[in-house]
Structures are given as C-alpha cells and as structure tokens.
Amino acid sequence: KTSKVQYYNNPMWPGEAHSLKVEKILYQGKSPYQEVLVFESSTYGKVLVLDGIVQLTDKDECAYQEMITHLPLCSIPSPKKVLVIGGGDGGVLREICRHGSVESIDICEIDQLVIDVCKDFFPDLSVGFKDPRVRLHVGDAVEFLRNAPEGTYDAIIVDSSDPIGPAQELVEKPFFDTIARALRPGGVLCNQAESMWLHTHLIQDMLSICRETFKGSVHYAWTSVPTYPSGVIGFLLCAKEGPPVNFLTPANPIEKLEGAMEAGRDIRFYNSEMHRAAFVLPTFARRELEAY
Ligand code: AAT
After folding, report:
1. CA separation, residue 129 to residues 95, 133, 211, 223, 251 (Å)
2. How large is the ipTM?
3. Which of 71, 150, 179, 269 is the most exposed place for a label (fewest CB within 10 A)?
4. Structure pTM?
5. Residue 239: φ, ψ to 5°
C-alpha cells in the first residue's frame, strides 16, 4: 500500500512490461536503498525483485551469473584476486568459487537486506558466501573503489542493478577510472551492460567511456535471460593495458578446470562455445555500437 515503486511503467523500458504469475508472496520489505520483494512464481521458481525490477529467478539465474563470471575469468590464465560489486545474492560468488586458482574474493554490496533475504530464500545462490576465500564489505561501491589499493585485482565483476537508484554512479566515468586503478596491468572488468534492444544510448556511452579508460581491449557480449526486460542482457568486457587479453576465445577454458563442474550444482548455461558466441552481434547492434 505504501509502495512508491512503479511496477508497470519503468522509465528504463517505457511502454512495456513482462509479467509472471505470483503464487505466493514470501517476503516484502524496505531497506534504506530500495524495496525488496521475494515471491514464488508459477513457472520460474522464486523471484527476487528490487524496486519493482526482477533481479533473478531460480529458473534463469544461471544464464546471467555464469556468463558475467566466466566470460572474464575464463579469458585470463589463473585469476587469483577477484572483486565483485553488487551481487549480494551470492550467485556470482558461487560461480567464482569454481575457479581453483582464485585465492581471494572481495565483494562490496550496498544493501545488507539483500544479503539477508537471499540467505533465507535463495540457498542455492547464497551458498557462495560460505567459501572461506570470500570477504564481505557492506557499503557503496563508489566509496570502496576510491579506497581500494592500486593494481590489485586480476578481475572485477560489476553485478549491479540498473542505473536508477543506488547504482546511478556505477555507469559514470569517475567510477570506471577507479576500477582501472584497482586492476593489475592486463586485469579485466566485466560489467552488466543492459539490453541492446532497449538501451542503445546507454551502451554507447558506456562503450566510449570504457574505450577511453581501458586501453587493452573493450568488447560487448550478450546472453539470453527470459525474465530481464527484452529477454537479453549484455556485458562490457574490458582489459587494462598490460599483457594482452583476447576475450573472444577462452584462454582458460572451463572444461579444463579441475572440479569446476562439480562445485555445488552443475554448470547449466556457460561453456566455451557459448563464450565465443556471446561476442557475435546482430547486424543492427554491430552498426550501432561499432563507432563507439
Ligand atoms: N545477481 C543479481 C543481479 C543483480 S543484483 C544487483 C545488486 O547491486 C543489488 O543487490 C544492489 O543492492 C547492488 N548495488 C546497487 N548499487 C550498488 C552500489 N552503489 N554499491 C554496491 N552495490 C550496489 C543485477 C541485475 C540486473 C538487472 C538488469 N535489469
């Protein structure tokens, strides 16, 4: 009754909405940052919603979490230090943990409520927090990166929400500068980068900022997530100047990682062929993005 959230006319995708049948509302609450909702759907399992936007569902979370994690980590040989921005559900942590080479994982999530709610309702995701390599920092990523030591991380994964609300600054140039500073030479960034069907201008802006900031290489990749607006979501893969990184084909293929397919649940979506395919763009997107 007190919700200020617009469930069916979000300015990020005006004039359209996707609906899921609600079987049961499991949790509804409000943090200082956003409204948090968990419900049981009839066809996608449990669903996590923040400020009226679906963040993940049991059925298709694998497509997002596996791709945002393994696209960067399988592009460099033996990643050791990894940073996750956002990702309070734990799914990206779960995926990083499949990499035996990883020694430490920092995660900076702004909202303790997201972490607590996911521990209660999404045990298959929050399992990621149980790994002893994980260090949790609850706070704003902008502040965290401003204070992060220079040249530290092999990979940074920005699993953040849409740039309305607490993630607003995470698409701006000063934020990317601090990311580049925190990466070691040849280190990689994978950033949630919205839909090529909906957000051409936002993607173009992020691409031109990243090309300015990351002198190694910058690519757009995408995957299919049925419960995200327009059914697809993209990622920006960026490498800092240093040892060259060829994102287009995995230098560290998942199929060769010992035990990678066994940690917790099996990999359901990602493989080396999906990795290569993710960088192939439709003609319209190629045209819209090539100049940026
Ligand atoms: N893995 C689930 C997918 C997400 S979750 C995004 C997370 O980013 C949320 O838990 C949110 O609290 C956190 N977040 C937002 N802003 C910040 C910030 N400034 N610092 C740290 N964490 C932040 C993303 C789904 C994308 C949906 C696309 N439509």
Report:
1. 11, 9, 33, 25, 27
2. 0.97
3. 150
4. 0.97
5. -120, 135
Q: Whose CA is nearest to atom 13 of ligand 1?
A: 86
* 3-state secondary structure at position 67: helix
66 lines ligand 1 (CB under 6 A): no
DSSP assignment, residue 78? Answer: S
Residue of 111, 161, 196, 222 to mutate, ligand 1, most atoms within 8 A of C-beta? 161
47 lines ligand 1 (CB under 6 A): no
Residues 6+ apart with CB under 8 A from 57: 20, 41, 44, 45, 46, 47, 48, 227
Residue nearest to ligand 1 atom 23, measured at CA: 86
Do 229 and 16 contact (CB within 8 A), yes or no? yes
Active site residues: 159
Q: Of all helices (H) and strands (E), which one includes residue 20?
A: none
pLDDT one digit per residue (tens) for the chain, 292 residues: 467 777 778 889 999 999 999 999 999 999 999 999 999 999 999 999 999 999 999 999 999 999 999 999 999 999 999 999 999 999 999 999 999 999 999 999 999 999 999 999 999 999 999 999 999 999 999 999 999 999 999 999 999 999 888 898 999 999 999 999 999 999 999 999 999 999 999 999 999 999 999 998 999 999 999 999 999 999 999 999 999 999 999 999 999 988 777 655 689 999 999 999 999 999 999 999 988 8
